[in-house]
Design brief:
Order of helices and strands of chain A: EEEEEEEEEEE
Strand content of chain B: over 45%
Shape of chain A: globular
Oligomer: heterodimer
Number of helices of chain B: 0
Shape of chain B: globular
Mean pLDDT of chain B: 90
Distance between the termini of chain A: 37 Å
Radius of gyration of chain A: 13 Å
Largest interface: A-B, 28 and 25 residues
Helix content of chain B: under 10%
Order of helices and strands of chain B: EEEEEEEEEEE
């Protein structure tokens, strides 16, 4: 079983829809969770960062972590065509000494 | 503006050649990383460096080499020993080692073997 599983999609939604992107993981030691957005042929950019369980909101984006289920989600409200990108989840056991483990990414298309 | 600069953006390599990808950052970050990304795949760690003059192998270091002589620079050499080098290469840096909330990526370099 891979440490981090992420459905690669592609996921296609109409403009204005609520998008739900998810990752599951197997290592219960993960405590730090991140979501990156990657436009085609570009480097990833950090969208959201959360520590341990709970929710974090930033504008139209909400990140959720459920450590009991080993499940993290990214919700995008009022999705826009400019949200079309690949979304990568990443996680780590600790800050400072352990590499990030990335999911494969989910490709999202928001259709106008 | 502060950021990470990778060059060249596109590079073609003949079989048996070594090539070097450049990565420079002006963010005053201590840690730097090289990742490889294949189509439909996540990021895989090649090498990382947490301080100058020190670096460690990541998950897929075979066929690659790095140096870290300056804080700002972390070049990656793809050697002829790397059997399948065609990929998208990403350089990243963070304030301290693996501080996930401060990791920033460059724009990437596309390497194609011809």
């Amino acid at each position: 079983q891979k440490e981090v599983e992420q459905d690669p999609g592609p996921l296609s939604v109409p403009e204005g829809a609520i998008v739900s992107l998810n990752c599951t993981y197997s290592n219960s030691a993960f405590q730090y969770f991140m979501w990156y957005r990657q436009y085609s042929r570009k480097g990833p950019e950090l969208l959201m960062y959360t520590y341990s369980s709970g929710n974090k909101e930033d504008g139209r984006f909400t990140a959720q972590v459920d450590k009991s289920s080993k499940y993290i989600s990214l919700f995008i409200r009022d999705s826009q065509p400019s949200d079309s990108a690949t979304y990568l989840c990443a996680m780590s056991r600790s800050l400072g000494n352990t590499p990030l483990v990335f999911g494969k990414g989910t490709r999202l298309s928001v259709i106008a | 503006d502060g950021g990470i600069t990778q060059s060249p953006k596109y590079l073609f390599r003949k079989e048996g050649q070594n090539v070097t990808l450049s990565c420079e950052q002006n963010l005053n970050h201590d840690a730097m990383y090289w990742y490889r990304q294949d189509p439909g795949q996540g990021l895989r760690l090649i090498y990382y460096s947490q301080i100058v003059n020190d670096f460690q192998k990541g998950d897929i270091a075979e066929g690659y080499s790095v140096s870290r002589e300056k804080k700002e620079s972390f070049p990656l050499t793809v050697t002829s020993a790397q059997k399948n080098p065609t990929a998208f290469y990403l350089c990243a840096s963070s304030r301290t080692g693996f501080s996930g909330n401060t990791i920033y990526f460059g724009e990437g370099s596309w390497l194609t073997v011809v």
